[in-house]
Amino acid sequence: MEFKWTTWKVAGAALALTGSLAAIAAAAHAAAGDDAATIKAALVQRLPKTEITTIDCDKIEGVCEVQARQNLFYIDRSARYLIIGRVYDMETKQDLTAARLLEMNPDMLVGAGGAGEQEDAAEPTPARQAGAGGAQPLPRIDPAALAALPSSGSVVMGKGGRTLTVFSDFRCGYCKRLHETLATLDVKVVERPISVLGTRPISEAVICATDKRRAVNEAYDGGAITSGRRCDTSGLDANEAFARQHGFTGTPVIVRDDGAVLHGFRPREFLETWLKEKVS
Fold first, then answer.
1. Model confidence over 164-214: pLDDT tens digits?
2. Least confident of 61-75, 182-196, 235-249, 257-271
3. Is residue 13 one of the residues assigned to a domain?
4. Pairing relationship of beta strands 162-168 and 187-193 according to DSSP bridges
5. Higher-confidence residue: 149 or 128?
6. How far is Cα 103 from Cα 105, in angstroms, rounded to an integer?
7. Are 244 and 226 in contact (CB under 8 A)?
8. Which residue has the higher pLDDT, 144 or 247?
9. Are 150 and 242 in contact (CB under 8 A)?
10. Are residues 95 and 168 in the same domain?
11. Given 126, 154, 188, which residue is the final one in a domain?
12. In this model, does residue 31 exceed pLDDT 60?
């Protein structure tokens, strides 16, 4: 009888604990909802021309993520400080802002690297960059500086007369389209992965794969890449340092062998004409 009584006491305590945890969770959820409601009310007063879509105070500790249509910014819980830019998780090596923007709009590669488009002077919003055509050409790059990048950070495909170096991200839809388009052209492609969308582990798996060309295709298709080994991935660090140095805030970036640069996807017809331009 004592054993049964103890068992019932333990069971009762467990139920009480479960109930307490449920109550705590419910209270936390309600508090989060209150935070969002309070912040939204404050933002309506402080940013009256900004259409707030959602507010999430649970994703990133210490700040609340605010979605304003296709824009993204952050706010402290007092709704006093507005934060525009990228949030980068240094443990997982993920660009949380870029990944979230891509999740919001899978058909567009967008960046949030700093100040850019503004609804008015009092209401800054993150810059947005389309991955499709329309972007202005970037300043020309010294071909010698490009050639100095380590081969360990690249995958070479094709055997055409002209060479294009492509800085890409394996979760960028326009990068995949460019990859497929370049495969139909008589051109040599040097693919240099950079982690704009938190894809450094994927890039490392591709670089360390025995068959790198196949791994590139698998990466773009979203498949699992099993390299089964570790290798020198310092070339990826060099790619990202080079990209930062030259202002590559999004992908893809195409660099021709004479140093001419294009930012964003271009269709086959455009690329065919561009490839025929005289190397200066």
1. 999 999 988 889 999 999 999 999 999 999 987 778 889 999 999 999 999
2. 61-75
3. no
4. parallel
5. 149
6. 5
7. no
8. 144
9. no
10. no
11. 126
12. no
Q: What is the pLDDT of residue 156?
A: 96
Asked whether residue 116 falls in the same domain as residue 202, the answer is no
Do 220 and 195 form a contact (C-beta atoms < 8 A)?
no
- Taking a C-beta distance cutoff of 8 angstroms, is the pair 110, 102 a contact? yes
CA angle 159, 160, 161 (to 5 degrees): 125
Give helix 234-245 / helix 200-208 axis angle, nearest 10°: 130
pLDDT bin (cut points 50, 70, 90) of residue 17 is very low
Residue 135 buriedness (CB in 10 A; 0-12 / 13-18 / 19+): middle
- Within 8 A by CB and 6+ apart from 39, the residues are 55, 57, 64, 66, 75, 77, 79
Query: How far apart (Å, rounded) are the C-alpha atoms in residues 245 and 251?
Result: 15
Q: DSSP characters for the chain?
A: -HHHHHHHHHHHHHHHHHHHHHHHHHHHHHHHHHHHHHHHHHHHHH-TTS---EEESSSSTTSEEEEETTEEEEE-TTS--EE-S--EETTTTEEHHHHHHHHH-TTS-----SEEEEEETTEEEE----SSTTPPPBPP--HHHHHTS-GGG-EEE---SEEEEEEE-TT-HHHHHHHHHHTTSSEEEEEEE--SSS-HHHHHHHHH-SSHHHHHHHHHTT------S----HHHHHHHHHHHHTT--SS-EEEETTS-EEES---HHHHHHHHHSPP-
Among 126, 153, 176, identify where a domain stops.
126
What value does the mean pLDDT of the chain take?
77
Predicted confidence (pLDDT) per residue in 256-275, tens digit: 999 999 998 889 999 999 99
- Domain ranges, residue 79: 23-126
